[in-house]
């Protein structure tokens, strides 16, 4: 079975010859160089190209993204410069930026759907051409409103502004929801016209390892209704939305599923997010979940032997069989401290598996 058929059958909750495996979060330049057979100089000249080559060498069925490090010295997307920028914000500077936000009417008036769609489609198709036989089904973090804003303003300034000035802060969520809704219209159109495969990894990091960062009551009042609004064009187009779950999501997982998402991704066992009970959950329509995962990058892939990883792949398949539609993926980015032998063992064991 080819990659496209395997993934599309799995997204449609049908059984393929084996579970597909997604790549794209290989945040390890030295591993990419070893897999793709390129030098460090060649890699840094075109990281996107060489990571696609590495994913092809591994045998990925599709890609959710291509992780390009911010520099040769820092392999994460949040580097020292970003942290320094966040530290400059105060509660007052957050409020000042909120006061300058456009109105909802202004956002709608400035939206040029035809131009936006041409730009979106050109980029999407160029990525698919480069991926060739691998399916480009990119994650998109901009199709839903932002609730907590610590990614821009830092934890202290953002969450203090939320606690002290909830009425002003509400504008941050509302304006981001409108922008998300408009972007969702572009992707919904690409799905309807047959360009986009319709599966989209998305979500916001709302939880720490202990639980939700903001109160579930606040999220139910201010956030989840706007998530549904933002998702509406995608739901109408039949998209399969997969929610990224970092941390302990148990307290708000019902709220996530109530938005109409089709699946979940992540699953940190150390936070109680065990696949054993997650596979029994259902969407709001009553369908089985699409599971992206659950290979832990801080546990299984980091600590296990290649033989243990092969056993873990078989165990996950047994747990998901007849309960959930399984797409093998990692809990987060694959960092340089994960042994290359473990990465190879993971991909090979999935490719050798049969339902």
What proportion of the residues is helical, as a percent range? 40-55%
The fraction of residues in strands falls at 5-15%
Rg computed from alpha carbons, rounded to a whole number of angstroms: 20 Å
If helices are DSSP runs of H or I spanning 4 or more residues, what is the number of helices? 17
Q: Which stretches of 5+ consecutive residues score pLDDT under 50? A: none
Mean pLDDT score: 95
Form type: globular
- Biggest sheet character: 5 strands, parallel
| Strand line-up across the major sheet | 4-5-6-7-8
Structural class: alpha/beta
Between the first and last Cα atoms, what is the distance in angstroms? 13 Å
Task: Work out the number of β strands.
Answer: 8
Query: Topology as H/E string?
Result: HEHHHEHHHHEHHHEHEHEHEHHEH
Describe, in plain words, how this protein is organized in 3D.
By secondary structure, this protein is of the alpha/beta class. It has 17 helices and eight strands. The strands form two sheets. A five-stranded parallel sheet has the order 4-5-6-7-8, with helices on one face. Strands 1-2-3 form a three-stranded parallel sheet. Strand 4, helix 12 (216-236) and strand 5 form a beta-alpha-beta unit. Helix 10 crosses helix 11 (166-192). The longest helix is centred in the middle third of the chain and has 27 residues, at 166-192. The protein is globular and about 55 Å long. The relative contact order is 0.13. The model has no long low-confidence stretch (mean pLDDT 95).
């Amino acid at each position: 079975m080819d990659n496209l058929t395997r993934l599309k059958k799995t997204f449609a909750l049908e059984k393929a010859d084996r579970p597909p495996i997604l790549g794209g979060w290989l945040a390890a330049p030295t591993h990419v160089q070893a897999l793709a057979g390129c030098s460090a100089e060649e890699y840094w000249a075109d990281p996107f190209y060489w990571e696609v080559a590495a994913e092809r060498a591994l045998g990925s069925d599709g890609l959710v993204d291509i992780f390009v490090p911010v520099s040769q010295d820092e392999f994460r997307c949040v580097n020292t410069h970003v942290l320094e920028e966040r530290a400059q914000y105060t509660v007052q500077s957050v409020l000042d930026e909120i006061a300058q936000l456009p109105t909802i009417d202004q956002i709608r008036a400035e939206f040029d759907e035809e131009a936006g769609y041409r730009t979106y489609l050109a980029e999407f198709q160029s990525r698919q051409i480069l991926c060739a036989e691998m399916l480009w089904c990119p994650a998109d973090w901009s199709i839903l409103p932002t609730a907590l804003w610590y990614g821009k303003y830092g934890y202290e300034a953002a969450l203090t502004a939320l606690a002290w000035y909830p009425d002003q802060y509400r504008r941050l969520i509302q304006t981001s929801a409108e922008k998300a809704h408009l972007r969702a219209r572009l992707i919904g159109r690409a799905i309807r016209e047959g360009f986009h495969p319709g599966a989209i990894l998305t979500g916001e990091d709302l939880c720490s390892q202990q639980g939700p960062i903001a109160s579930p009551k606040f999220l139910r009042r201010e956030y989840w209704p706007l998530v549904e609004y933002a998702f509406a064009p995608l739901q109408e187009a039949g998209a399969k939305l997969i929610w990224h779950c970092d941390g302990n999501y148990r307290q708000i997982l019902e709220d996530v599923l109530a938005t109409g998402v089709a699946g979940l991704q992540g699953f940190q066992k150390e936070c109680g997010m065990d696949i054993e009970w997650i596979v029994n959950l259902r969407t709001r329509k009553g369908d089985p979940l699409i599971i992206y995962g659950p290979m832990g990058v801080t546990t299984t892939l980091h600590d296990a032997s290649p033989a243990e990883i092969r056993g873990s792949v078989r165990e996950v398949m047994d747990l998901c069989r007849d309960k959930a539609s399984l797409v093998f993926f990692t809990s987060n980015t694959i960092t340089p401290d994960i042994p290359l032998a473990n990465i190879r063992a993971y991909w090979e064991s999935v490719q050798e598996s049969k339902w």
